[in-house]
Amino acid sequence: MRIELERRARQSSVFAVVSPLLALALTVLFGGIMFALLGKDPVSALYSFFIEPLLEVWSLHELAIKAGPLILIGVGLSVCYRSNNWNIGAEGQFTVGAIVGSIVPITFYEWHSPLLLPIMMVMGAIGGAAYAAIPALLKTRFNTNEILTSLMLVYIAQLFLDWLTRGIWKDPAGYNFPQSRSFVTEAVLPEVLASGRAHYGIVFAILAAIAVWFMMRYTLKGFQVNVLGQSERAGRFAGFSGRKMVWFSMMFSGALAGLAGIAEVSGSIGHLQPSISPGYGFTAIIVAFLGRLNPLGIIASGFVLALTYLGGEGAQLSIGVSDKVTRVFQGLLLFFVLSCDTLILYKVRIVFDRARSASTKAAS
Questions:
Q1: Cβ contact 180:106 at 8 Å
Q2: Residue 125 pLDDT more than 70?
Q3: Res 165: pLDDT
Q4: What whole-number distance in Å separates Cα of residue 197 and Cα of residue 199?
Q5: Closest among 74, 76, 18 to 301, alpha carbons compared
Q6: Residue 355 confidence (pLDDT) above 80
């Protein structure tokens, strides 16, 4: 007996739309079971996790802060994945974007100019794109698997950031704390509203999502991404280059991840430190798939995943659960999203190998 997946002749358009909502509902259901196993009241635990963070103005600002990098990275990854290139290293590109974008405000820490912030944003995007170009080069030149190379580069970037903030970029007046000099006022992303901390990173994210949606729907480049992603052979017949698409998709997603990195450091932290991300680059993979690789859908899914971060922090204080609960929720969500999508495209078949069972009986 074996289990096989048989591709459906027709896929349900209704379930294709409902699938993310079903995945979210299953995540909440199994999350409630998890809280019950931990000895917590499931209803109150889920309330503190998903509802309480939406009841205060300051909390909504924190939600926007966390949603910004998730949306920005997720939008870039959606282009990559739709072109059938698998960038798993956005976390590293996020980190390198933060490092490269911080070169000017840390090195020239006495420079005050309105040009400082735009230069930082551009340098951050260039840094992320350049770091994503490494797995693109390895794939196009040596046919190396971009999943492995982009993932391994994450740890190099994180260790390099740690070395910088504990070494040559450590603030000499920082009482030996592992962090850089604080950015001057001109190097800090301003707040969107006076009522809270939410900065222009969330504006960048929404504008990027709208721009990429327009590109994918109405431009030749978007058409190339879709054609090459579905069939590279068909793309070659149309005159599209698969090698050029590897470079474009990887560097495009890296640029948005790098922009998210410097926006996070400039707007939320104000300096470099060994840890600048709770895992935005990895969580953005879930954001991209929950949003159906659609930039507009990614805006909504980005806020949902940001809520898991914010709710996890609140649940640690209100009901005393571990911070690992956030990771469990995100893992459950990814599992159910992929499961629902698989069952839309395929049906499960149990196959009994009668010939093998007959021969086994004859031998016995």
A1: yes
A2: yes
A3: 95
A4: 6
A5: 74
A6: no
Do 40 and 34 contact (CB within 8 A), yes or no?
no
CA end-to-end distance (rounded Å), the chain: 19
* pLDDT for residue 122: 97
pLDDT tens for 54-89 read 888 989 999 999 999 999 999 999 999 999 999 999
What is the identity of the amino acid at 329?
F
Rg (Cα) of the chain, in Å, rounded?
Answer: 23
pLDDT the model gives residue 8: 79
The b/e string for 78-89 (b: 16+ C-beta within 10 A; e otherwise) is: bbbbbbbbbbbb
What is the SS3 assignment for 348?
strand
> What is the arithmetic mean of pLDDT over 168-177?
90
**87: which 2 tokens?**
């960038």
Cα 142 to Cα 231: distance, rounded to the nearest angstrom: 21
Residues 6+ apart with CB under 8 A from 1: 350, 351, 352, 353
Residue with tokens 């690992």: 324
The token pair that represents 57 in the structure block: 């103005």
Q: What is the pTM of this model?
A: 0.90
CA dihedral 252, 254, 259, 265 (to 10 degrees): 170
Secondary structure of residue 191 in the 3-state scheme: strand
Q: Is the dihedral of CA 250, 252, 254, 256 positive or negative?
A: negative
- Report yes or no: 132 and 254 within 8 Å, Cβ to Cβ: yes
Do 312 and 62 meet the contact criterion of CB atoms below 8 Å apart? no
Q: Does residue 360 carry a pLDDT above 60?
A: no
224 has a pLDDT exceeding 60: yes
In contact, 63 and 299? CB cutoff 8 Å: no
CB 271 within 8 A of CB 183: yes
Residue type at 61 in one-letter notation: H
The rounded mean pLDDT for the chain is: 90
Three-state DSSP at 24 gives helix
In angstroms, how far is CA 41 from the centroid of its own chain? 31
Classify the C-alpha dihedral 118-122-249-253 as positive or negative: negative
